C-alpha cells in the first residue's frame, strides 16, 4: 500500500496538489475506495507497460546504432566472413531476415553464421537486416538495420588495355607467342606488353628472335627495352635482329666450324690449352656479335639524329648445338635478364650469365653503353657449357624474373626453378596450366594466358623463352 500511496502522492505533486498532514486520514480513505483502487491498479499496469515499451524501443535503437564491422571483400574473389548474431548479442531477436546480399553476389547462411559468395560489384555498399525483438507484438513491423560492406575492386580491372598506335614508324605487335622446332628441340616463346604500358596505350619494349643456323647451331635472343628510353622498342628489335643477322653471315657460319674441333678436344681432353682456346673463341665470336649490335644501334641513332641512349636495351643470347658428346651452349648477357639451363631430371640448375643488378635497382646496363666493352668485367659476360643433356633452357626478361624470383640470390636455387616449372604446370592462383609437350596443340594459347599472371607491383613487359 505504501508503494501505491507514494505513486499517487508523486502524481498529485507533479500536478500541484500537496496533501497536508491534517488530510492524511482522508487521503488514506481515498486510496481505499474501490473505484480508486481500480484506477490505481490500472495506473501501475500502465506504468509497467510504459517502461516495457521504452526498454523495447531503447533495445531497437541500440541494435540499429550498434557498429558492426565485417571483413572487406574483393570483386571476383571468393568471400567468406562470419556474421554471428550470438556474437553481436542479438539473442533477443525473435524474427529477422537479410536483404540486399544477393544483389552483391553473396548469401547468408544461418546454419554456419556466414556470408559467402563471389562479389560482383565494388564500392561502399550496404545490405539490411530486418528484425523484431522480444516484447514487440506479433503484428508489429520489422525494424531495419543497414550494414556497410566494403567491396574492393578487382585490381586487374583497374588496368585498361588500350591498343598501341599502329601508325607509329616503330610500332610492333603488343604480344607475340610462338612455338616452333629449333634444331633437335622446340622453342616456346612469348613476349607480351606489360599492364603499365597497355593501360596508357604505349608500346611493348621487349623483343626476341631465334633462328636455326645452317651449321647446326641454334640461336635464341631476348632483349628488354628500357622503359625510360623513348625508342627502346626499336632498340630491342634491332638488337635481336642484329644478333641473328651476325650469326647468319657466311663468314660467321664458317668461323663457327672451328668450334667443332675445339669441342672434341675439350671432351676428350686432348690438345694443349683447349679450355683457353675455347674461352678465347667464345669471347672473340660472341664479343664481335655484341659489338656489331652496338655499332648498328649507334648507326641507327645517328641516322635518326637521336641520342643513342634513347635505344637503350638489355641483351641476352644463347647458341646451342648437339654433338656426340653432348650439348654445347654459348651465352652472352648484358642487363638484368637471366639465362638458365636445367639438367635432365631437373635437380640442378646452371646459370649461363650473371645479371646486372645494383643497389636500388640502379645497376642495369644496356648494349647501347660503350663503356661495357672497355670494362674489365666484359670477358665475364660470356659463357660456355658442355652438358650431356638438358631438360630446359630458359631465358626471360625482368618482367618474369622480378615477380617469380624476386631477388638475384634465388637464381642458383634449383628449388626456385622447380617452383617456377610447377607454376607453369598450374600451381598458381589462377590454376593456369602450360603443358610443355610437343604434342600440345594449345601450347601457344596456354602460355599467352599464363603470361597474364597477376603480381602486385609487377606490371612491366614480359618475355619468356623455353627450349625443351
UniProtKB/TrEMBL annotation:
Highest taxon above the source species: Bacteria
Gene3D superfamilies: Immunoglobulins, PPM-type phosphatase domain
Stored InterPro entries: Ig-like_fold (IPR013783), PPM-type-like_dom_sf (IPR036457), PPM-type_phosphatase-like_dom (IPR001932)
SUPFAM superfamilies referenced in this protein's UniProt entry, alphabetically: PP2C-like (SSF81606)
Domain PPM-type phosphatase, first and last residues per copy: 186-467
Entry protein name: Protein phosphatase 2C domain-containing protein
Amino acid at each position: 500500500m505504501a508503494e501505491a500511496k507514494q505513486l499517487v502522492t508523486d502524481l498529485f505533486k507533479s500536478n500541484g496538489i500537496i496533501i497536508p498532514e491534517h488530510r492524511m486520514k482522508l487521503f488514506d480513505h481515498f486510496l481505499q475506495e474501490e473505484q480508486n483502487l481500480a484506477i490505481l491498479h490500472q495506473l501501475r499496469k500502465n506504468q509497467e507497460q510504459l517502461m516495457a515499451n521504452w526498454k523495447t524501443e531503447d533495445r531497437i535503437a541500440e541494435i540499429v546504432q550498434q557498429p558492426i564491422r565485417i571483413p572487406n571483400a574483393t570483386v571476383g574473389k571468393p568471400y567468406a566472413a562470419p556474421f554471428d548474431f550470438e556474437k553481436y548479442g542479438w539473442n533477443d531477436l525473435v524474427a529477422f531476415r537479410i536483404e540486399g546480399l544477393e544483389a552483391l553476389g553473396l548469401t547468408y547462411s544461418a546454419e554456419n553464421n556466414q556470408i559467402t559468395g563471389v562479389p560482383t560489384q565494388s564500392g561502399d555498399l550496404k545490405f539490411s537486416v530486418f528484425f523484431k525483438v522480444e516484447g514487440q507484438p506479433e503484428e508489429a513491423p520489422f525494424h531495419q538495420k543497414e550494414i556497410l560492406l566494403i567491396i574492393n575492386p578487382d585490381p586487374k580491372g583497374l588496368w585498361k588495355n588500350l591498343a598501341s598506335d599502329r601508325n607509329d614508324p616503330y610500332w610492333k605487335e603488343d604480344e607475340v607467342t610462338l612455338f616452333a622446332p629449333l634444331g633437335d628441340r622446340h622453342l616456346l616463346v612469348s613476349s607480351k606488353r606489360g599492364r603499365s604500358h597497355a593501360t596508357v596505350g604505349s608500346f611493348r619494349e621487349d623483343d626476341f628472335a631465334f633462328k636455326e643456323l645452317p651449321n647446326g647451331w641454334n640461336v635464341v635472343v631476348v632483349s628488354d627495352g628500357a622503359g625510360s628510353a623513348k625508342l627502346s622498342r626499336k632498340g630491342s628489335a634491332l638488337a635481336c635482329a642484329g644478333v641473328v643477322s651476325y650469326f647468319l653471315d657466311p663468314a660467321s657460319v664458317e668461323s663457327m666450324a672451328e668450334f667443332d674441333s675445339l669441342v672434341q678436344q675439350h671432351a676428350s681432353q686432348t690438345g694443349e690449352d683447349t679450355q683457353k682456346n675455347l674461352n678465347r673463341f667464345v669471347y672473340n665470336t660472341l664479343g664481335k656479335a655484341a659489338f656489331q649490335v652496338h655499332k648498328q644501334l649507334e648507326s641507327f641513332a645517328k641516322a635518326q639524329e637521336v641520342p643513342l641512349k634513347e635505344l637503350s636495351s638489355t641483351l641476352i643470347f644463347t647458341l646451342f648445338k648437339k654433338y656426340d658428346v653432348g650439348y654445347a651452349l654459348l651465352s652472352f648477357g648484358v642487363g638484368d635478364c637471366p639465362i638458365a639451363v636445367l639438367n635432365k631430371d631437373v635437380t640442378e640448375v646452371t646459370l649461363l650469365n650473371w645479371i646486372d643488378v645494383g643497389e636500388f635497382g640502379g645497376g642495369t646496363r644496356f648494349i647501347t653503353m660503350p663503356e661495357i666493352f672497355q670494362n674489365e668485367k666484359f670477358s665475364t659476360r660470356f659463357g660456355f657449357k658442355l652438358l650431356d643433356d638438358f631438360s630446359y633452357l630458359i631465358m626471360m626478361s625482368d618482367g618474369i624474373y622480378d615477380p617469380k624470383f624476386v631477388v638475384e640470390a634465388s637464381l642458383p636455387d634449383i628449388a626456385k626453378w622447380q617452383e617456377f616449372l610447377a607454376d607453369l604446370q598450374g600451381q598458381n592462383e589462377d590454376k593456369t596450366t602450360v603443358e610443355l609437350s610437343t604434342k600440345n596443340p594449345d601450347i601457344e594459347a596456354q602460355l599467352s594466358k599464363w603470361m597474364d599472371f597477376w603480381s602486385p607491383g609487377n606490371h612491366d613487359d614480359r618475355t619468356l623463352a623455353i627450349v625443351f
